[in-house]
Each structure stands twice: as C-alpha cells, then as structure tokens.
Specification:
Length: 196
C-alpha cells in the first residue's frame, strides 16, 4: 500500500518508525531515501543494533526518535510508515499530529495497529503518570518486540482512530483489510492509509 501510494518510490523520502528490522532493510531497497529510528535504545543497544544493520549491508547509526516529537523538518517527507507502534505511544494523538507535520502536502501515512473492527471507540488500557510510572486499567498488556522482548500497550483502537487522524490534519483516511494466502496473510490485517 505504501509503494502504491507513492508517485515515485525510487525518489521518495520516507520515515519508518523502526530501523533495526528486516522490514527496514527490505524497504530501504525500494524507496529513494529511508530514515528509520528506534525509541530510547541505550548506547550499548544502539551499537549492537547498528552492527546488526551493518551486517545486513546498511551503514547507518541507529537513530533515537520519539514519535510525539520528531526531529525532522516540517513537510519534509513523502511518506511515514508505522507498523504496530502507535498502540505503544501514551499520547497517540500527538504522534499523529507529528506524522502530519513532517509530511509534505500530498504525503501519505500508512500504519498498522491492533485494530478492533467491532469497536467504535478507542480504549485507553494504560496511562503514563507524571512521575513516569505506568497505571494499567486492568491486566497489563505487553506486545512482543524483537528489540526489548515486550512493550507495554496503552491503547486498543476502534473506528474512532480514523476520526483522530482527521483531527490531526490528515485527509482521505481509509482502513483497508489486506488478506491473501499468497502474501502470508491468511487471516488478514487492517492497514490504515491517510494523506496530508
């Protein structure tokens, strides 16, 4: 969906919310410029992950970025891609505003989240307190992560996410069900696409 939304993938400037992954390595070969990042890796982990990237043929130092405060210029990107990250961001609305800010007019945001198609509203299942502690609304939920082993989930998303994206300054927001045994998605996954 990302490549199809880009007028010229070979010259596109794209930001991905992951960097130390096979996905990043594969996408890097398909777009003009790909900038990725990880969230809060310590210097040892950054060194280890940068070494992993080098073994994959990618000469890049692991960037540390906060999706709610990106260090990227306004309107500087053709696309942002975020796969299963937004649910781990305490203030996901700020992250959506940041995505809209860094996209040029006509730029595209493609994201996946655990999407509850039977729910209208989003549900906050954890919150970050001012002192940095996390308060859970029920049983704590952690999702697997190849870097840290488990990351706290703050939100379950329903159809209200599309309204939140519009409120962040995005347009033509669309949730698409992608499914196909031939592409290893027999159960299907929701992919959400929006333009600035």
């Amino acid at each position: 969906m990302l490549l199809a939304a880009l007028p010229s993938p070979a010259t596109a400037r794209v930001y991905g919310t992951e960097q130390a992954s096979p996905f990043f390595v594969a996408l890097r070969r398909r777009v003009g410029t790909l900038v990725g990042s990880e969230y809060r890796p310590g210097w040892r982990r950054r060194l280890r992950l940068s070494a992993w990237l080098l073994r994959q043929g990618v000469r890049a130092w692991i960037r540390d970025e906060d999706l709610t405060a990106l260090r990227l210029p306004d309107a500087s990107l053709d696309a942002v891609i975020s796969l299963d990250v937004l649910e781990h961001v305490p203030d996901f609305r700020a992250a959506l505003r940041e995505c809209a800010r860094v996209l040029r007019p006509g730029g595209v945001l493609v994201l996946t989240v655990p999407f509850y198609e039977d729910r209208v509203e989003n549900e906050q299942i954890a919150r970050l307190n001012a002192d940095g502690s996390i308060e859970h609304a029920g049983e704590p939920e952690f999702h697997g992560d190849p870097i840290s082993g488990g990351v706290v989930c703050f939100h379950h998303f329903g159809w209200a996410l599309l309204d939140d994206m519009r409120a962040a300054g995005l347009r033509e927001v669309q949730a698409c069900r992608v499914q196909g045994v031939d592409v290893a998605l027999p159960q299907g996954v929701w992919v959400i696409r929006a333009y600035r």
